[in-house]
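During data preparation, a discrete fold description was generated, as reproduced here:
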Amino acid sequence: MFDNLFSPITINKTVVKNRIAYPSLGLLYSYDGNVNDRYVNFFAERARGGAGIVTVGPVGFDEVGSGKVILVLDSDDKIPDYARLTSAIKKEGALSWIQLFHAGAYSYSKFMGGPDPIAPSPIYSKYSKLVPREMTLDDIREAQEGFVKAAVRAKEAGFDGVEIIASAGYLITQFLSPLKNQRTDRYGGSFENRVRFPREILEMMRAALGPDYPISIRMAGNDFVAGSNTSSETPAFAKVYEKAGVDLISVTGGWHEAPVPQLPMDAPRSVYSYLALNVKREVSVPVSASNRITDPFSAEQLIKDGYCDIVNLARILIADPYWPKKAEEGLFDEIRPCVACNQGCTDSIFSGKAVYCIANARAGYEGERTIVKAKAQKKIMVIGSGPAGLEAAVRSAEAGHAVELYEKADRIGGQLWIAGAPPHKHEIWELIAYYDAMLDKYDIDVNLETEATIDLIRERKPDHVFVAEGAEPVKPRIDGIDDPKVVSAWEVLANDPMLGTNIAIIGGGAVGLETAEFLAAKGTLPAEAMHFLFLYEAETVERLRELCTRGTKKVTVFEMLPKAAAEVGRSTRWVLMGSVKRYGIEVITGAKVNSLKGGAVVYEHGGKTESRQFDAVVNAVGSRSVRTIADAIEKSGIPFTVIGDSVKPARIDKAIHDAFLAVMNLK
């Protein structure tokens, strides 16, 4: 079925068993730049899952380029630690690769008590919020030699290949960009001069590593930054890299500061594979594609159709390191999905925290979180089939217990159905499909449309009960909250009632703004219609853009705090707020709502009391725990654990991780 995806490929003279690579992605599992057990366990698990290449990185080679927080390979005495890492990866059947890194103007070294960042030119960086020091010719040579010396150490440590990063807005990209490189010497100006810095690195590296050792480069297919390199220029860079000795070219999207989303759900699946094809047309070495390649069928098709030779699966293999083995064995439904939420990975990195995964409680904890077979089987009763209840049921069955799941609704999923309703959030529903498949795999007794009462619990005589009743919308103390024109955001997202044209939303957090987007998107041009009208030039580009963002609803959001979406992660908040702006959603912050009678929103703002009339008002101020069974069972003497929103309303990751740990620690 996947003849291409699981066929071997030769890079230089090194044979890779399949076309699946785990690429470099910052993890922050140490803050001293050193390899530790957490790194070893993490990368070994990705190798154990069946990937052909597992890339360690990013790995710096000096303080100014690494910012003192990522892994570094800056001296020979660190070679043994990396040798332990490569040994663990290769023992599990994958080739070990390393990505060498220098942040340039993006470096946070100064904030960590180190030197000022350096770059081709002293141009302010929106990413680091600093003006870097312009590199001298000595600095340039030192950085080039740093790359090469680290590559030699990597080879000695047992890595099967070395990659340098020339993407994402880091140092090499800064040399390539006419926007960031305004030098007047031989490293600036013309195309030949701007590409000189990476070309010389590759030539030096090839000479140092020998003709048969694989070298790859991670390049931007399009910077997606006005005034910088586009997909029209990038193939020319790739041709220079190939001539300089590169054996594999890994193509990704643009810079971190690009205004084009590259990782969240808003980006369609495989959307940037065209960038890999754009490069592949111009070179003869293998090319890998990146970003939002999520399922085995898409991966196979990309290779089959000639877009690329290898697929990079980073967050995908964080969510499920066994994606390759499950795909090869035809267990597609059992692949734990990456829903592109960015909460545990990109948001964590940008906040200076270690990477985890909302759906995979073991990611980053491979050495300490394990479900083992129980010595004695227990009869487990799980009440509620939201993410916490589903995780508890599946993990309990994995431990060998007999599990009964009770859900009062007519389908599993709980609030996951609501979370996946807004535009571009539908991939959350894949978690429901995954858990449904796992319920079948473990033959778990699922009882839908069955409300678990204390009498039922006594009748079933469980050894342990996991109570995951979930949450319900909060009704704020606002005059008119029970007015017929007021509905909850949950009701809107779950049942899509007809609300009229002019709609108010009370609450500008994530739920409120996503509900606003859900409503504002109604009546806008769908993707297939957009494609048709654009192809036949039926409308101007400007008109098509308008049709994509102006629908049948006018939405106004009232938020009491001075900032909307304050709890949304750094890597996704700007995307959400951009959508709010594009859809013409009005957001009034610092607004205290006092009354909602008859659709009239009366609120205090800027020291004044104002009033606006709406066809409907949506309550999106938050949720509260439901503890009906939890409170009753507490008095019964039956062993139980409360999990998920029944403890405290929180995000999906909290529900899944706490459920995993509750099962793991079950006595």
